[in-house]
Design a protein that fits this description.
By secondary structure, the chain is of the alpha+beta class. The chain contains 9 helices and 16 strands. Helix content is 29%, strand content 26%.
């Protein structure tokens, strides 16, 4: 059975092992995870795609070994910054909360997973499938040194995946797509005293941005997600206050729903821009596809069943932001995300997680892993 004291002690150790990203160094925490799982008899492999950036992949062999299920939290955290009132790397327990960098994102989930695996081994549980556990590096900076190369190089092969990086027992089954791009507009330079002699690229940008925002108000609805959005992240242009700007560049963040594509967003953007100018360039910086999984998929139904068996209300939800579950889509691996942190505590000063949440989270994982059946 889940040992709450052991779980808390594990999390306290994990918090004390600095894995802030940047600068990015998962060696100490990865070594702790490696030893923890080795002591339980799991088969361990270590993968390093850049100096100091360590990933741990472990396998608990199942009885039939025909299929495999992946559990994957991440090892790194965001930087603590200077706003903490308590030491960020010294786990402090106050009442029913444990404070520390990563308590919610994502060392609390990591501790729950380690405890769940410990329970399975202690109780001699033989799963019907191989359980693969991957504690990955670099999630907070895009996973280019962690989950992405593990999947691309086929170092991680699984038939289904559960990403442990969410809060309050939510079950993430869908998320928006993401496209980041820059738009550079060309105008015509002139003296600031005679603006009619030039074409002000900043003015053009202002009109285009206003038009874009008007187009994306309200409209499409989704059961688990808000409407598509556009955010203007940066804007710059011009050379001097008394010169008509002959250039302006701005960056856009598009979030679009499952069932739509970045091509539709690009087409709409081009139509808007060309109403004002044809002298422009668009540079795509990154695209991440939207994702959704059937709510009746065994990953979802088994997790819902496990939570309900412990009198915990599951929260099926969607993610407005981009998570790593989309990395599995291109490889045909069904995936969901779940987790047990405290809502609103990721990436904040004095981050904390509820101890009861983590205790119950570890129990949920044990029940889920016992119950899960591949169709």
């Amino acid at each position: 059975m889940v040992n709450k004291k052991r779980l808390i002690k594990t999390l306290q150790t994990l918090i004390s092992l600095d894995s802030q990203n940047p600068p990015g160094d998962e060696r100490k925490i990865a070594e702790f995870v490696r030893k923890y799982l080795k002591n339980l008899g799991l088969k361990i492999k270590t993968y390093t795609f850049s100096h100091k950036r360590v990933n741990i992949v472990a396998t608990l062999p199942g009885e039939k070994r025909l299929k495999s299920l992946l559990l994957t939290p991440h090892l790194d955290t965001v930087p603590a910054g200077a706003s903490w009132k308590t030491p960020a790397l010294k786990a402090k327990i106050t009442g029913n909360r444990i404070y520390g960098l990563g308590a919610t994102d994502c060392k609390g989930n990591l501790a729950c997973a380690l405890e769940a695996i410990n329970v399975l081994v202690e109780d001699g549980v033989n799963l019907d499938y191989d359980l693969i556990f991957a504690a990955t590096a670099d999630e907070e900076s895009g996973s280019a040194l962690g989950l992405i190369p593990l999947l691309e190089r086929k170092l991680l092969k699984a038939d289904a995946a559960v990403v442990l990086d969410a809060d309050e027992f939510e079950i993430v089954i869908t998320q928006k797509g993401l496209m980041h791009l820059s738009v550079r507009l060309a105008g015509k330079k002139a003296h600031g005293a005679y603006p009619w002699l030039g074409v002000n690229a900043i003015n053009l940008a202002a009109k285009i941005i206003t038009d874009l925002e008007t187009q994306h108000r309200g409209g499409i609805k989704h059961k688990y997600l808000r409407a598509p959005t556009i955010n203007v992240g940066t804007i710059k242009g011009g050379d001097k206050v008394n010169v008509v700007s002959d250039w302006c560049e701005f960056e856009l963040d598009f979030r679009f729903l499952p069932g739509s594509t970045e091509k539709e967003a690009l087409r709409s953007l081009r139509e808007t821009i060309t109403k004002y100018t044809r002298n422009y360039k668009i540079k795509i910086q990154g695209i991440q596809d939207p994702y959704s999984i059937d709510p009746d998929h065994p990953l979802v139904s088994s997790l819902v069943s496990a939570m309900r068996s412990l009198s915990i209300k599951p929260r099926i939800s969607g993610s407005e932001g981009a998570t790593v579950i989309t990395f599995f889509k291109a490889r045909g691996i069904p995936a969901i995300a779940t987790g047990f942190g405290t809502e609103g505590c990721a990436h904040i000063a004095d981050e904390y997680a509820g101890l009861d949440n983590l205790y119950n989270g570890a129990k949920v994982l044990v029940e889920f892993l016992k119950r899960y059946k591949f169709n």
